[in-house]
Structure formats: structure tokens, C-alpha cells
Amino acid sequence: MKKNPNKRRKIISYIVITFSAMIMLTPFITATFNSLKTYKQYTAIPVEYIPNPFRWQNYVEVWRMTDFAQYGWNSFIVTVLSVLGALLSCSMVAYAFARLDFPFKNSLFIMVLGTLMIPPVVMIIPQFIIFKHMGALDTLVPLWILEWLAQPFGVFLMRQAFLSIPKEYEEAAKLDGCSPLQTYWRIFMPMCKPQLATLTIFTFMTKWNEIMAPAIYLSSQEKFTLPIGVLSMSGAWFGKEQYLVAAALMSLIPILIVFFFTEKFFVKGASSSGLK
Amino acid sequence: MNQKKVMKLWMAFMTVFALFIAGCSDESSGKGGDDSSATEITLGFYSSGSADEKMQELIDKFEEQHPDIKIKTQNAPYQQFFQKLDTQIAGGTAPDVWLSDGVFVQKYAERGAAKDLTEWINQDLNKDDYYGLDFNKGPNGSYWAVPQGIQIASLFYNKDMFDKAGVDYPDESWTWEDLKEAGAKLTIDTSGKTANESGFKSNSVNQYGLTFFSITEGWMTVLKSYGGGILDDSLKQSIIDTPENKKAMEYIVDGMDRGIFTDPSDLQAFQSAMSPFPSETAAMRIGIYARVLAANETGVNYDVTVLPKGPDGERFSPVIANSWIINNDASDKKAKAAWEWVKYWVSEDDVQKEWAELGEAVPVKKSVAQSDMFLNSGDKPANKQAFLDSFEFAGTLDVNAVWSEWVKKTGDNFNRAFLKEASIEEALERADKEVQKVLDEFYENQ
Which member of B87, B293, B298 has the closest CB to residue A43? Predict the structure, then answer.
């Protein structure tokens, strides 16, 4: 009897996928269970894997203990403005590096890449002093404004994307009377959706999870973003870690939403290239 | 022109603009309405969960009592608070008064960020009324801070485990050797054998005799009661490579080798290095006062007593006096207002009592610490007196301006000895050299 080789391959690949998905999901499931325990169960040895009973009120407790909605809103503002800034400024700078001719183009680009190698800690104090003089301490401004000034990683990513677009598109646009700005906006940007989606997710995740900058620039509790708001819940002496886990899981939700939303661009990007 | 497109663009622009405004519009509000004669001071503290609410209550009361002073708070989670503070000091925007972990007081003092409070303390506070003022003294005798709450260590023991093993509870007659002997009977492996029975497997322990962690609740306490330590009295010379320390290290390594004490890798198996005692996996711990919180939360049946003596009868209890520091750059008016806050904190009985109710620290004011309210509150441990008795032989963790740096060097080397990656002699010798280098680099450049 002949077995269908395709079916067999499919079964094997499903087994592999299921197995690796389980490995990836284990920490997530453990965290979910941990968030539903009492402190006693949380620390218990031997480990009690399944909470008994399930303490859903831990989540309610987190809402009661912190100003979760306010922190979430602050994080939202910072993240959205950062993503918009990154998309716009990085792609504009990248377009210039990829498609326009100007003196010292290559040396300037190497300098941009060079800034990637400066460790962020070195820049904290100078930036802090600049923002102090701008009167921007204890506001959300320092957290997003830098993204409007083009970050080197985004510039590099978008430049590579623009470089891969055939010259013919540009020439055709020119013939139809497009200015460089119009070519950038109407021709190049729509063709680089996958890279823009990548940049969106990267910026979103970095900003959403950022701890150092908000902790340094924000002083009033009502301006805290989620990560430091969540960390503030734990005492200096005694963690009540189960609440922290619950809060951390809740703050994951927006990232998941953004990921599901932008995922289709990743898939599309691979299949829709080339001239028709 | 396509009107729809213009509309679309306009809408998009307005949305971004609205967010922009939201992102910028957080300029400090709530300043208005104050009369100009009021002094506004900023007060920084590390967030401590529910304690934040209590702090705010006490601030409100203070403002009621002192209508001419307004307090603006700045807080952040513990670790980030100190990162931020370092940046603020560099940028000249540090709070006028802040809560410092006791181990960082000298760092701020020697870097010129803390105001010398000697004169004000002599003038306004009766030193005999308070615990811990001397723990913030610099080597030249100046006072740099006033304690906010005190952490001092005792020996915590799980009564149920002692009862079950038929071992007498520890008392003030215990030496570290007694502790190890009792610990052996309380250490049980997966097959149910104790550490003093043959066939006991020290690599598969189910219940430890003593949980041993890092500096305060680990090596420093043993080293000092063996007559050793890390720095000499000047706090600028390492005394790590000494026979006393070697003896203490031999004691610790033997305890870990036999499975009685947790070694650094054992602690990895726990949710946190703090959890063996509250999860009833260790019969004893060296614990600062705040450790009662977790033990009470999980409902351990425990008590405390003073820490054991060294071989020569010497006893040592590590102390960390978390303290208020006044900014050296604060204007006279603000510094004086900040001093009012510090005085209010330590001298008002109500404030001391309310803070003590949180159960995080030993009160600074002796009359409150020695009152029934603290000693016989009904919460465990019953023998809270042990914490107060420990002040007689209490000392700091050789705190100086580069404390964090040398603790890391020492800890790394000691851990190598604990995990048998290096001999005790090698570990002490290397720690000594590395710590001396840290000290020289800082003090020779001053």
C-alpha cells in the first residue's frame, strides 16, 4: 500500500510545530498560573504548578493597587508618538541615503551607523541635561521626541528596503511628473510595508517595555508609564511577586494586538515583490 | 483637487497633532494657588508598594502642621530610584531631601551630594533617644543622614521544624558551631536522611538547616563574628586576606559542602533567594527585620533570637540604617524646610508609630521601639526584643563611598569558593587584591 508522502510530511511538520510551540508557550503558561496564586503558593517548595484555588482577584487587586489605566494611557501616548516619529523620520532619511545624490553621502551614512555603537548609558547624563534646559523633565516629551529625529537602526533598515526597489519605478514616476517627495511618499513607502511593519513592531516593543528613560525623566506618579508603574507595586522589602506577574501579563496585551495587526504585512512582503 | 483626500489628510494631521499635544501637555500642574511665602521642597523616595500611601498620609499631616512648607514627591521603583538619583545629581536637579538606602549614604557624602547635618543634629536631636544615628557617621565624625527606619539582623528559626527534629530552639548561648550542629539535624535529603546520618546525599537536599545569602544575610555576619571583616577602620584598606576570615570561610564552605547551608547554586531553584525560609524549605535564616513580612504572609510558625557568637565569643549583627539625606545644593531656606521634615519624621511619636505599623523596619525612636506597640503587637515574631538587643553588637557593612563596587568584587570571589571553583586561599587573595584596587582608584583620585 502506498502512503501519501505529502500527508506524512504534514503530520511530521505538525508534530514539530506543536512541540516547539509547547516549548515557547511553557513560560507564558507558567506565568499565567503564577499570577493566579497566593504568595504562599507562589513560593511553595515543592512547586505547586497549578494554582488552587485560581485567584482571579489578583488581577482585580492589581487594578486596585495601581493606577493601571493611567499608566497604560501614558505608555500608549509615548508609544504611538514614537512609532509615528520613527516611521516618518527614519524613512525620510533613509530615502535620501538610498535614492538622492548629495556630497559626502557615504561618509555621512557611515557616521549614522557609527552612532549605533555608542552605548546608551553614555548618553543619559548629557541628554538629561539637555532636556532639563528644555524644561521637559517630568513630561512625556523626552520619551518620544528622539524618535522623530531618525534612529540609526531604522534608517539602516529602510535604506536597505529602498535600495532593493528597481530604478524603473523611480524613472516611471519621474516621467509622470512626480517630485522626489512624491516619489518617496506614493511609490516607495507603499512598496516597503513589510519593513515599515518591522520598524513599527520594534519601536513599539522597545518603547512599551522601556524602563530606564521613564524612570529617569518622570517624577510624578501620575505620569509613570506601565513598566515603572508595575515595578513600583513591589515593595523594597517584600515583593508580592504574584501581583507583578499579573500586571506584567496584562501589559503584554497591547503588544500582542499590534503583532496580530501587523503580522499580515510580514507574510505579504515576501510574496508581493517584483515587477508586474 | 480631490476634496476627500484633503479631508483624509487633514484628519490624519489633526489626530497626530492631538496626540502631540497630549504628549506635551504634562507640564507640572497643581502649582497654582499657593501663596508665595510657602517653601516648596521636593522629597524623593523609593516606592514600596502599599507603603507609598502611608508616606503620602504622613506628608499631608506634615503640611497641615507646617502650612509654610509644601512637599512635592518624586518616587520610582527601588533600583531605578538610585539610577535616577545619580543622573539628577549630575544634572543638578536632585530632590531637596531623599530617602537613601543606608549602604549608599557614604557614597553621597563623599561625592559632596549630601549636606553635613552634624550641627543641626547636635542642636535639635537628643542622640540617646534614637537608634542608628551613629551608623551614618563618616570616618571624620560628621553626620550625613538621619535614619528613617532600621534594618538589623537576627536569627530566624522555624519552630515546627525544630519540634519535629527534637532540637532545642536556639538561644543567646549559641555559637556558629552550635548552629551547624543543630542545622545538621534539620537538614533532610530526598530519602529522608539527615545531614548527620551516613548515606545522606548533600546534593539532593529537601530541607536546609540554614539559608545563607549574599553579604548581609550571609558572609559578612559570619566573617565579623570570627573577628574578620572586609575593611579596616579607615575604610580605605582591605583586610580580606587574614587568618580570621580564612577560618570563617572554612566554616561556611564546610556547611555548604555538607548541604546544611544553601550555596549560591541551591538558591537558583527558588522563586527568589529570599524564599527558602518563608516557603519552609530552610529551618533557619540570618534575617534583617523586614524579612518578617514574607514569613508572616506565608504563616510560618517561627521566632527570632540574637545571632550566634564566633569562636572567641564575639558577636555581630549587621545593620542598615535607611536614612533621610538633605541635598547639599539645596538653598538655605529649602534645606531648613527639609530639616523640619526630618525632625518631624524621627521625633513625632505618631509618625514613628504609624510607620512602624507597616512592619517594614525597626522604629528609629527608642521610646517607640521599646513600647508595647512594637514589641507586643501580636504579630510574629514574639521575641522582637532580640532585634533591639542586637544593637549592642551591631555594626555596618563596612560601608564607604565605593561599597557597591567592592561588594561585587568580594561576592564574586567568595561565590567561587562556595561553589568550589576556587580554593578559599585563592578566593581571599584575589578578593583582597581586587577590592584594594577599587579602593585605591577612588581614594587616590580624591
Answer: B298
